[in-house]
Design goal:
The structure holds two protein chains of two kinds. By secondary structure, chain A is an all-alpha fold. Chain A has one domain: Up-down Bundle (Four Helix Bundle (Hemerythrin (Met), subunit A)). Helices cover 79% and strands 0% of the residues of chain A. The longest helix of chain A is centred in the middle third of the chain and has 26 residues, at 49-74. By secondary structure, chain B is an all-alpha fold. A two-stranded antiparallel sheet of chain B has the order 1-2. The chains are: A mainly alpha, B mainly alpha. Chains A and B meet through helix 2, helix 3 and helix 7 of A and helix 4 and helix 5 of B.
């Protein structure tokens, strides 16, 4: 199991590095898909089947397809010829190291992070049911609000994309 | 994770994928050609039998000859393609199609082992998740070929697949509501005991509620099957590779085994799709009228387990023949008609169908 964990963690991190380090936008987008697949595998190894499959279904299967699609339609040649300046590299590295050190500090300060959590396997077969029950009982109001927000966003996109409004 | 579990899983994977689905793919190509010949009053490939003899076997040797031909043909890579993705794309269409079979229960039990590779609690979701990845193969093939017809084919295919994924997903929601779970093995068991979704003639479902629920189930079945035709890019929805407009669509620039992989991917997707339809609507491996249903906890004798596997395969083959029959009977849709059907009709009908099912489940006791 540990070997599998390291394998999928490597796949995820390699995909993540591919997003930032490759020149071609299509390769970047595709690396992101690989990274999502690795992440989904890690979720499934934690017996979180629902979130693992949703990760693939929503992010890898729907959102990234649209990303890739748009990148291909635009055919971004300029991005591949772009020069990288030393200043942006140093700035980026600085930002990343500050952010990473903060995350490490926060995780170390959390008492829950120190102890190993028990495995989920007993309730794993019920995770779809439990998520559904929680969403439609305790969290039904936030769910409705998110639904309305998404509707507003959809209508907004349609209005913005129509050039000539009567 | 012990060694016997791994060995049993490997045996199941080899048995299902390499000894059942891949030969079925090869022979459904043969069946496609024979049935199309039958429909068009021709002979079809009926010559190739056992090599170096005069035995013809109604052309059953044809898939082997085809396979050898595909492997030995020149694998030509045009100079204008984007090489990495051009090589990756055929594999990306084939792999998701084969991966989805992991959660399909293809039999009850054999030697006390459940006949499903991974008995997940999120079966249908897993299938849709993996199937949604097969768009990448076609999109990348269209883009990597770097020429006009494949690109148009790829664009068409991806918008078609994304559109029909929605109605495909929504169409099975009523079924999941009725059975109250996402585990495909349990759904099949429930159907074996209390009547198939599309045949409520025994057990609990032989009641007013069962007959009322037949209405939304039938609507679901029609939407599911039609969307499956669109998802697998088959006629009447094969616009991505529509010859009269796009030469051969996204695989115009491919030759030899790479072309064959696209071809096999399409047929594998068709077989798995049929398997899912059989599992959800036609009782999976179970026999009709509650015959030979295994008891809870009791061991299943070998002959019964084998009969269940044969029953599943028989239903899948019947469904594939239906796919082939439709292909050679209906003309191709126009692209705007296809998108209209998906977004304006199926999407709304599927949503309404969910409400109808909820109403029946709530008010009819």
């Amino acid at each position: 199991m540990t070997a599998l964990f390291y394998f999928f963690a490597f796949v995820m991190l390699a995909g993540g590095l591919g997003v930032v380090l490759t020149r071609s936008p299509v390769t970047s987008a595709f690396s992101m898909v690989v990274s999502f697949l690795g992440l989904a595998a890690l979720f499934i190894m934690l017996h979180a089947y629902l979130i693992g499959t949703l990760q693939i279904l929503v992010y890898a299967g729907a959102i990234m397809v649209l990303f890739l699609f748009i990148i291909m339609l635009l055919d971004l040649k300029a991005e591949e010829d772009r020069k990288i300046s030393l200043f942006t590299v140093i700035g980026g590295a600085l930002l990343v190291s500050v952010f990473a050190s903060q995350i490490i500090k926060v995780v170390k300060a959390l008492p829950a992070a120190a102890e190993a959590m028990p495995e989920l396997s007993a309730s794993a077969s019920e995770d779809v049911k439990n998520t559904g029950l929680l969403m439609f009982t305790d969290y039904v109001f936030p769910l409705q609000i998110i639904g309305v927000l998404l509707l507003v966003a959809t209508v907004g996109v349609i209005v913005l994309s129509k050039k000539e409004l009567k | 994770m012990d060694i016997t579990f791994i060995l049993i899983s490997v045996a199941k994977i080899i048995g299902l994928v390499f000894l059942t689905i891949l030969p079925m793919v090869a022979y459904s190509v043969w069946a496609e050609r024979r049935v199309s010949a039958l429909i068009q009053d021709r002979v079809g490939p009926n010559r190739v039998g056992i090599p170096f003899t005069k035995i013809r076997l109604a052309g059953l040797g044809q898939p082997i000859a085809d396979g050898i031909k595909f492997l030995l043909k020149e694998d030509f890579t045009p100079s204008h393609v984007r090489k990495g993705y051009y090589w990756l794309a055929p594999a990306l269409t084939m792999v998701p199609a084969l991966l989805t079979c992991a959660v399909l229960p293809f039999g009850s039990e054999l030697f006390g082992i459940k006949m499903v590779i991974a008995d997940l609690s999120v079966g249908p979701l897993f299938i849709f998740a993996i199937a949604s990845l097969s768009v990448y193969g076609i999109v990348l093939a269209g883009w990597a070929s770097n020429s006009k017809y494949p690109f148009l084919g790829g664009v068409r295919s991806s918008s078609q697949m994304i559109s029909y994924e929605i109605s495909l997903g929504l169409s099975i929601v009523p079924i999941l509501m009725i059975f109250g779970q996402l585990n495909l093995s349990d759904i099949v068991m429930e159907q074996a005991r209390n009547g198939w979704a599309l045949l409520p003639l025994w057990g609990d479902r032989l009641s007013l509620k069962g007959f009322l629920l037949f209405i939304p189930i039938f609507i679901s079945f029609v939407i599911f099957t039609t969307s499956m035709f669109a998802e697998t890019n088959r006629l009447p929805f094969d616009l991505p590779e529509c010859e009269t407009e796009l030469v051969a669509g996204y695989h115009t620039e491919y030759s030899s085994m790479k072309f064959a992989l696209f071809f096999l991917g399409e047929y594998a997707a068709m077989i798995i799709g049929s398997g899912l339809a059989v599992t959800l609507f036609l009782g999976g491996w179970s026999l009709p009228f509650g015959w030979l249903v295994p008891e809870d906890g009791a061991s299943v004798p070998f002959w019964m387990g084998a009969l269940h596997i044969l029953s599943f395969l028989g239903k899948v083959v019947a469904f594939i023949l239906f796919f082939i029959w439709v292909r050679w009977s209906l003309p191709r849709f126009r692209y705007d008609q296809l998108m209209r059907l998906g977004w304006v009709f199926f999407f709304e009908i599927a949503l309404f169908n969910i409400l109808l099912t909820a109403g029946i489940l709530l008010f009819v006791k």
